[in-house]
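quick one, two chains, predict together pls
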Amino acid sequence: MREAPLRAGLWLALALLGIGLVLPLGTVLLRAFEDAEGGFAGLANILAYARTPALRLAAWNSLWTAALTTLLTVPLAFLYAYGLTRACLPARPAFRAVMLLPVLAPSLLPALALITLFGNQGLLRGMLGGGSLYGPVGIVAAQVFYCFPHAAIILSVALGMADARLYEAAAALRAGRWRVFWTVTLPGARYGLVSATTVVFTLVVTDFGIPKVIGGQFPVLATDVYKQVVGLQNFNMGAVVGLVLLLPAVGGFLLDRWAEGQRSATLSGRAVAYQPRPRPARDVPLLLLCLLVAGFLLGIVGVACWSSLIRFWPWNLSLTLDNYDFARFDAAGWGTVWTSVRMAAWVALIGTPLAFGTAWLLERGAPGGLLSSVLRFVAGLPLAVPGLVLGLGTILFFNHPANPLGFLYGTLGLLVLNSLVHFYTVPHLAAVTAIRQLDPEFEAVGASLRVPALLTFARVTVPICLPAILDIAVYFFVNAMTTVSAVIFLYGPETKPASIAVVHMDEAGQASAAAAMACAILGVTVAVKLAQLAMAGVVERATQGWRAR
Amino acid sequence: MQRRVLNAALALACAMLPALASAQPRTRLTVYTALENEQLAPFKQAAEAAVPGVEIAWVRDSTGVITARLIAERQNPRADLVWGLSVFSLLQMEALSMLEPYTPAGAEALRPNFRSDRSPMTWTGMDAFVSAICFNTMVAQQRGLPRPGTWADLLNPAFRGQIAMPNPASSGTGFLTVAGWIGSMGAERAWDYMTKLHENVQVYTHSGSAPCNNAARGEYGLGISLDMRAVTLKNQGAPVEIIVPTDGVGFDLEGTAILRGSRNMEAARKLADFAVTRAANELYGRFYAVLALPGVQAAVRGYPAEFEQRLVSQDFREVALKRDEILRDWAARFDGKSAPRN
């Protein structure tokens, strides 16, 4: 096998991740120890941070709201996932689809919907009993909505893999239902629970959209970074807060890695897939719960879309499309939506071949070596880096006067690079998983027939993995459409994405227009997701027929 | 199969390429501004029609953010021009030698207090705006709030938790309001007033329009905001009354200036020339009542009469040079209640 071109591919991936991730993060680290004039400040910034009570308060607020959200979200998501995988529920595909809805919208959408429901003029404000939505109440409620699918996806995968023989053995030993649950089901989903917990906790600590819209005067870390950088242009203090923000994320990442290492193979080759049998005492309550959760998710999205159609909240509730005339609220008008679509399409177009190609090179192409190990490590890193910190590092790195890449500053190219790197880990892992499922014999047979490895890749590997590739492309697209935190520092005069326009409209108090823009984004992502489902059927028939016997 | 997918992907990529590498025959001016969003499109259209060969790329944010950004970028300026920025910020930038001295053609015709006193000039004025109270009559009725006529009335305990005010660090409106209080009451009484007012304030917002927008939506009973936002909302049918307090209001000028180090100096000068013309002032008059060029009739309706008399007399330069100090003081006293991003 000619290795040189394959290695070149690995170097390309490493270069992109290096420029887009490692160097910007390094810049953040350096800036945290610099004074305003660029000299070495030692620990002065960090001490100044520790001495500012308002900043310390923000760190504490972030921690406890994240912990509370995790405590609420993970059990709820567990029950929902349990219902989907271990009970006999009708319309399971529909429940699965509704579960994904929050992922398709920017995180600001639930916050805007909650204001319509529970704000000072909200329809249901009486339910708060005189308390205020603005602050921790609103943050936690909106975060539960936003984080729910992330936890539910992980847990439904974890609960979906069960060995029926264990349950048969437990039944033979006359174990009661609770005992089976505590000794078989929960241990089986243990690592999924650890994963879901760290993911939700990290999401809440690092999300910026929700506290921005609904946080009121309640300071949290994510809004503090923003305040320091955009409001005060104090990049060094922003870098310090960014480092503090990095701590829980890296902690969660390490915990997850540790749990991953503890996991032995849960499913051996002889496992028998568990099939739930109908049992009303279990199915009916779970169905009710799933209906309740799905209704809540749909209701929040519905309220947001309804509020985007209202002429003048709350005095004139007649419906209108005026709020979708975005040029009235933001100079770029609908242009921001097209900017987002273009950016997301580029991220998907470049990111998909890059992630898949790199994963293949790592698994099957150029074996071993230091380069591969470094690349594997770097590809896993973005998951642990909050968008705000990555965005801050990117602006500091690319706006440095000595950087020859400075021409990228404020261009669509930089937004694309940043989003690609920011969302790289999950597609990378998905591609690795898809490729590992393939028998290495394909390459061996190809090599023995003297077919070049790249040809085997194009003729066999890619078609077989097409459903996974489609998943990766849609993942890149959807995340690039909805992201706020990283790009908020990076857009230029001509390249403002729609998600940022939502922030700006909300900032100016144009809540209906902000909701309209959030719904426009949701419309695009839902359309793409539906297109994927439609295409998946075709692709399935064209490329996956051989799997059936 | 994969060839078809590849072809489709290639075709899509080609279709998107022109967008990335669009040709630019006109000179593109990067203009930093704190104008209101709905002003941007008409201003761009009018300027590009009047000054051929120039294209405007706006960078818009609240006054404090744009000012901080301009100052942070001063080693490596990205803006050619500022058009629609508070005179306090312009004078602060003048003191840092960031403004290009240039007297636009016809600038002498502007009211003397609406243009730079240097020669050549460093900035020219556009219009004046004042802080005003947006008072939601509907909410007032529901919650039994009295109608405030003066700043002092806002200290009434009935308004506890009912007031939204812009944060002066980010919002130009917020700063001119604070500057107005300091100007009319004197520093000591003004800080004392703000400390008492703080008890009634529910939130300090990022932008100057947000308090009025939120008061119009009834989220708060009243918002301290800028006159233009209040007038626009009232004209849209919001249940707000615009109150210009009778015990003196701060006012601010919006102005135009060229940045030293602009890479498109010639085009920037042409745009600065346009900014002082009668046509440009008529444009400003669609939103504001007090204009830089005498004799231009403002087209905007709904402004309270006689409000010019309520303006406090103000030494812009003196306040501008103290801007940082005032903001530091303010943040130390009241920052806990700010909305995120201030």
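Residues 53-86 of chain A form the longest helix (34 residues).
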